[in-house]
Amino acid sequence: MPVFEPKVKKDIKTLAKFVQIYCRENHKSSDKHPFACKSKDAEELKLPRMNLCPDCSKLLSHGIVKRAMCPLDPKPMCKKCPNHCYHPVYRSMVREAMKFSGIYLAKRGRLDMIYHYFA
What we know:
By secondary structure, the chain is mainly alpha-helical. It has helices spanning 6-26, 42-45, 54-68, 88-107, 111-118, and strands at 33-34, 51-52. The protein has one domain (6-118). Helix 1 (6-26) packs across helix 4.
């Protein structure tokens, strides 16, 4: 039985891609390690292999947990949500990562990826 709904999987994969881009472009001098989701259900997500710095790994792990546990249905975009479930430190980090990655993708013609961010 699937643990994650298809929409949740898509949201988590989008977040992972945005964090990966942000980390790759902004933390070039940081030591990076393969990201490993600590959730027992992580295999179902089928996230791509990615190397992230420790801060971005924590951010992505936090984001996965928060998205998987979101009680709202339908889930609004986090920036429009009345309940901010992200810790304030992570909320500012994810805003920065999403903004940077959205602009990065737009400049490279990947409008399909940024649709999720602006919709």
